[in-house]
Amino acid sequence: MTQDGTPLEGADADDIQIDLGAAEPSEVDDFDIDLGFGEPATASDDDVLANLVGAPEPEPEPEVSADTTAAEESLLEELHQRLRFQEGDWYVIHTYSGMENRVKQNLDSRVKTLGMEEHIFESIVPTEEVIEIRNGARKTVTRTVLPGYVLVRMDMNDESWGAVRHTPSVTGFVAHANAPVPLSLEEVEKMLAPAVLARAAAANSGPSARKKKVEVADFSVGDNVMVVQGPFAGVHASITEINANNQRIKALVEILGRETPVDLTFSQVQKD
Length: 272
Known about the structure:
The protein has 5 helices and 14 strands. By secondary structure, the chain is of the alpha+beta class. The strands form 4 sheets. A 5-stranded antiparallel sheet has the order 13-12-11-10-14, with no helix packed on it. A 4-stranded antiparallel sheet has the order 2-5-1-6, covered by helices on one side. It is elongated, with a radius of gyration of 41 Å.
């Protein structure tokens, strides 16, 4: 088109191009947009195992009042003072396991028959109460502290030694170089304290401040078991640790081609 508005010859209106100039480079810095997806999740074998195994639930501790603790401490102090001023020394005699009470009865009768009351004062089979777990049920039972042994308080001389040694089912004294060795006061207290506290708790029908020993009759370390409940049902396991108080076991099972320790309850397993 000319300056006066006349179109140029041969020029088509559709062919007209308008030059807007070269585009200026943008000076705006690049920026990232975080859409919040994060890194892709990759679950490792350990994560899978952790989710399967889970964590053991702690067993709540029984509440024991301060009065109970004080009463038991008082009983132990009474035991200490009584033992401290008693005549004679405490000795340990051997017998056969399961024969402890029979030996005590035989010895007490023999002392009276022989008139040895001035030299042999008393015999005791130390006992304690334990919680036995059998077939998933908890039951309190009384057990001997020293299976196969009986305590005797006596003045040691030839006559008293002979009276004890020749009691039926007695196989000898606990001795050093053939000489009977008396127990220390602390050793005697340790053996007699469980029975004293158990009797007091039974008389008061209250909880003891001291935890009872828990024994498991159904399982032992090294046993092979079958998992019957939970994510590992149908898998064989080998017991490596037993927590009797919480009724749980640790066992090795094969998961993802390797032996892995898992935590299980007693109810989740049974012996093969």
